[in-house]
Amino acid sequence: MKIPRPILNLIEYFERLPGIGPKTAQRLTFFLLNFPKEDLERFGESLVELKTKTRFCNICKNVTEDDTCIVCSDPTRNEKQIAVVSGPMDTIALDKAGFKGVYHVLHGIIDPLNNIGPEEIFIKELLERITKLDSNVSFEDMGDDKSGVEIILATNTSMEGESTAMYISKMIKERGFDAEKVIITRIARGLPVGGDIEYADDITLSRALEGRTEI
Amino acid sequence: MKIPRPILNLIEYFERLPGIGPKTAQRLTFFLLNFPKEDLERFGESLVELKTKTRFCNICKNVTEDDTCIVCSDPTRNEKQIAVVSGPMDTIALDKAGFKGVYHVLHGIIDPLNNIGPEEIFIKELLERITKLDSNVSFEDMGDDKSGVEIILATNTSMEGESTAMYISKMIKERGFDAEKVIITRIARGLPVGGDIEYADDITLSRALEGRTEI
């Protein structure tokens, strides 16, 4: 049976979304046929406004409505701790986990197989941001904690995430900042909480051993 | 963390779709942030056009671009066999199964708990359609098969589907059509192909016994 074009169009758009196959795309589309026309219009507008009404924060590059995002303009957050993440969703996850520093959103990960090089993501902007902090901020003035800026590399622990972290770390070190002023750290790799040693894969387990801490 | 309004709007719309929870809605929305602006616009347009560019077929009430749908205007289909279904997706499923008759789409199911009565769905239109066929068509002219119109009640085998089928059957009978001209049938309920008698539920099994056929 030939499905009418306007219905097929929407099915095809849904199919392009992650985790949505042809059958689900069809179900969603036919479900929307029961939506009031006004709701479909507002849904459509939200899609358009997703990009037209948002921009990148001029400091951390996270998606925001204003020039500077909520996190970067919040004086209670520790701007000396910058978590480098690959996407905006990671900032939500870290916030939920209780992170009180600020972010730098790369909007991607270095992935040569998919033609994403270091220039395609916001690495240059991160280096500029650190340079600016390094030259402008007198760390002694920032409170009783005299340590410098901490760059926490919080990209995924996938192969691409690891190599992106390695690359960024190398680039920062090449800039020759004072090692006491710019500290680079990487999130710990180990067993997830509730994890079974018996079922853990070799690499995770060897990373968990390497990263062991004294108790 | 406060998520920007334009992003939240879209997340909320995705959450209203069946099978999409808060987490998936978030993932889909942030995925769309990487879409080109033009694609988001076209996606939005497709949502609006889903209703503005479609209408109900003037015969079977299926969703269509033209006044009469592809099935109803296809002369090779048997217009003496009308499958009554609850939604447009059911017509696609029956077509795939090889059904060569025509459809009548109710656009819903009688469901008193959700305030859907017989007037909310296209039952009246079905009765009018049968009346018209009964008075206009001389069955003897329709080919060598002299039997009348067959109304196949193909609603779901859920409680609501069964009671909708019962209600429609009662309404058709009350109209007093010639019993040889208007035959009412119900799709078979039994074990799905590949089904295990051991694991079948009692009701399915008792229906399968009731509906047994000689071989």
What does this structure look like?
- Two copies of one chain form a homodimer.
- With 215 residues, chain A is α/β, with parallel strands linked by helices.
- The first copy, chain A, has two domains: 5-53, Helicase, Ruva Protein, domain 3 (Orthogonal Bundle); 77-186, Dna Topoisomerase Vi A Subunit, Chain: A, domain 2.
- Chain A is built from seven helices and six strands, in the order αααβββαβαβαβα.
- In chain A, strands 4-3-5-6 form a four-stranded parallel β-sheet. Chain A has a two-stranded antiparallel sheet with strand order 1-2.
- In chain A, strand 1 (55-56) and strand 2 form a beta hairpin.
- In chain A, helix 1 crosses helix 2 (22-32).
- Chains A and B meet through helix 1, helix 2, helix 3, strand 2 and helix 4 of A and helix 1, helix 2, helix 3, strand 2 and helix 4 of B.
CATH architecture of the largest domain in chain A: 3-Layer(aba) Sandwich
Order of helices and strands of chain A: HHHEEEHEHEHEH
Query: What is the CATH fold-level name of the largest domain in chain A?
Result: Dna Topoisomerase Vi A Subunit, Chain: A, domain 2
Which two chains have the most extensive interface, and how many residues on each? A-B, 53 and 53 residues
Overall pLDDT of chain A, averaged?
90
For the secondary structure, the number of strands of chain A is 6
What would you report as the Rg of chain A, rounded to the nearest angstrom?
22 Å
Tell me roughly what share of residues is in helical segments of chain A.
40-55%
CATH class division of the largest domain in chain A: Alpha Beta
- Number of domain modules of chain A: 2
Number of helices of chain A: 7
Strands side by side in the biggest sheet of chain A: 4-3-5-6
Straight-line distance between termini of chain A: 67 Å
Tell me the strand percentage band of chain A: 5-15%
Ranges of chain A with pLDDT <50 over ≥5 residues? none
Shape of chain A: globular
Instruction: Describe the main β-sheet of chain A briefly.
Output: 4 strands, parallel
